[in-house]
Amino acid sequence: MRSRSILVTLLLVALATLVGAAPASAHSALVSSDPAAEGTVSAPLDRVTLTFSEAPLAGLDAGLRIEVRDGQGADVSTGDVEVSGTAMSKAVDLGSGRYRVLWRYVSPDGHPITGEYGFTASLPMRTPSPTASSTAPVTPSAAASSGASAAAATATATAAPAGATTHAGHSSGLVWVIGGLAVVVAIVAAVTAVLRRRGGRGRPRGAASVDDAGR
Length: 215
Hints:
This protein is of the alpha+beta class. It is built from 3 helices and 8 strands, in the order H-E-E-E-E-E-E-E-E-H-H.
């Protein structure tokens, strides 16, 4: 009897242990991820998505979290975690390099689960698109002809005032020459008149009388 009681007790303890362990093993788990763990991304990716066996606990206080950190430890994810069915996702801005995804999930019964994994991004170089404000290229022939026309116009515009100045210089010089000659002629005439007057006054009176007597 005593051995049977001990055996029954052991069976009950084992059953209780199995029943208590069942709920713990029934917690939600990560089923898949995009990008995949330790995978390589070769096409542009704008979101990281984690899919679980059950829908996560929704609400502002659920504590859902997704971080995507680059090689320097900076978080390149943006915005809030979005939930769609059994998946939760977050927007990212990726470049080429190594990344680690750190996540926190809360199952419907409130049990939190955390985890992390890595992946590599090998993306093509981003080429800037041409803008509408780009200026049209100027052909060398058009630029050369434009420069030659501008130079010719400038030379013509500057040549006219130079010629006018030259003619004005000649005219003013001629006026000065004529004026100088007139002054010289006037001086010579004045000197000649003075000399004639002095010559008339200097004649001897006796000579004049002899002339008169001869007449």
